[in-house]
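Quick one, T. Sequence first:
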Amino acid sequence: MVKGIIGKKLGMAQVFAESGKAESVTAIEAGPCVVIQLKTADKEGYKAAQLGFGQAKRLNSPRKGHLKKLGQFQYLREFRVADTEEIKVGDKVDVGLFKEGDLVDITGVSKGKGFAGVVKRHHFAGGPKTHGQSDRHRAPGSIGATTSPGRVFKGMRMAGHMGTDRVTVRHLTVYKADPERNLLLVRGAVPGARNGLVLIEKREGKK
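Structure tokens:
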């Protein structure tokens, strides 16, 4: 059984619990997905199911041959499975996989922030605002020593590209699953921008 699905982040909303407490949820268009290929331990060295999601405008010849007339999918992603015997190529995976109270891990690509300084990127405090310091308010300060070692160590926190990282948020709770509309509501925030691709994987147990 495939315990994951591909989705698209639609945005965030506010819902009210039975107690009247307001909660933030993220709406995700999850599936429907189709099993495109099965990876086996004998052939590939691991067990996984490749799912297809989204409608592509056009496909090149290799992708058409790979999809084997199962559909014109834009995205292909793999999910590890314990056993591939109960799964067949062409099987559909939809939101019915989840129910209220389930725990899920959601993976997405964080929002890109471009080139950012150390204050925004690493939450540095910055330099003094007075005593003659007129241009060091958001500067990092010293990044190295003197003669020994005479260089800057690798991995120093400095200004640079921020965002567009693969981020996984674990143990989020499913608020509601609506298979008719392929809609999944999850409590809390999910990585990525609106309309960004996300991978939703079901975990064992309930919160």
